[in-house]
Design a protein that fits this description.
- The complex is a heterodimer of chains A (110) and B (110).
- With 110 residues, chain A is mainly beta.
- Chain A has strands at residues 9-13, 18-23, 32-38, 45-50, 55-56, 61-64, 70-75, 84-91, 104-109.
- In chain A, the strands form two sheets. Chain A has a five-stranded mixed β-sheet, with no helix packed on it. Chain A has a four-stranded antiparallel β-sheet with strand order 2-7-6-5, with no helix packed on it.
- In chain A, a hairpin with a 5-residue loop joins strand 6 (61-64) and strand 7 (70-75).
- Chain A is globular.
- The N and C termini of chain A lie far apart (37 Å).
- The model of chain A has no long low-confidence stretch (mean pLDDT 93).
- Chain B is mainly β and 110 residues long.
- Helix content of chain B is 0%, strand content 56%.
- In chain B, strands 2, 5, 6, 7, 10, 11 and 12 form a seven-stranded mixed β-sheet that branches. Chain B has a three-stranded antiparallel β-sheet with strand order 3-9-8, with no helix packed on it.
- In chain B, a hairpin with a 6-residue loop joins strand 6 and strand 7.
- The N and C termini of chain B lie far apart (36 Å).
- The mean pLDDT of chain B is 94.
- The chains are: A mainly beta (110), B mainly beta (110).
- At the A-B interface, strand 3 and strand 4 of A face strand 5, strand 6, strand 10 and strand 11 of B.
């Protein structure tokens, strides 16, 4: 599975969009990009995933660059409850084990 | 709503005790996983299972074993608990690439 690089931490004002970047320059053609988040003292929670096309669901949007070497998770209107560690994971093995990096600690501030 | 349930939220055990951590999922998922999470080390995979009675070692299996007698239940066993096994333990199940995690068991070995 390709390695990912994320900023260690980010701040966002409440109500504004939070844009979390992820670099995965060694991604191969059959690997998916997954995003999970972990709110303090809870288990990680699935957010969204994609292969090539941009994706949107009720939680977030995922923008994948055309060359697939990077992606951005967008929380359109961040709330205090979105304060969490966000993990970007690249894997071909759908349903298989996940390899977690250190993630980005997002702090949403009033 | 789909669920992964871990039997205990907090657990305190003595060094040398045999410890069982139980995990049950109600989603009929084939795949189940045990991770541990430690500050600065992130989530690390201990064991996983792709089917009943099947098990595969993860990245840090030493000191642990697992049991999967029924599809819905995946147990993590610490044969002889040690203080370096004090950690947050997270169980997950997956299907179609989406992992659902339990709330975690915070185990303290004294």
């Amino acid at each position: 599975d390709a390695k990912t690089t994320q900023p260690t931490s980010m701040d966002c004002a409440e109500g504004r969009a939070a844009n979390l970047p992820c670099n995965h320059s060694t991604i191969s053609g059959n690997e998916y990009v997954y995003w999970y988040r972990q709110i303090h003292s809870q288990g990680p929670q699935y957010i969204i995933h994609g292969l090539k096309n941009n994706e949107t669901n009720e939680m977030a949007s995922l923008i994948i660059t055309e060359d697939r070497k990077s992606s951005t998770l967008i929380l359109p209107h961040a709330t205090l409850r979105d304060t969490a560690v966000y993990y970007c994971i690249v894997t071909r093995n759908q349903g298989g084990k996940l390899i977690f990096g250190q993630g980005t600690e997002l702090s949403v501030k009033p | 709503d789909v669920k992964v349930t871990q039997s205990s939220r907090y657990l305190v055990k003595r060094t040398g005790e045999k410890v069982f951590l139980e995990c049950v999922q109600d989603m009929d998922h084939e795949n189940m996983f045990w991770y541990r999470q430690d500050p600065g080390l992130g989530l690390r995979l201990i064991y996983f299972s792709y089917d009943v009675k099947m098990k595969e070692k993860g990245d840090i299996p030493e000191g642990y074993s697992v049991s999967r007698e029924k599809k819905e239940r995946f147990s993590l066993i610490l044969e002889s608990a040690s203080t370096n096994q004090t950690s947050m333990y997270l169980c997950a199940s997956s299907s179609q690439g989406l992992h659902t995690f339990g709330s975690g068991t915070r185990l303290t070995v004294v």
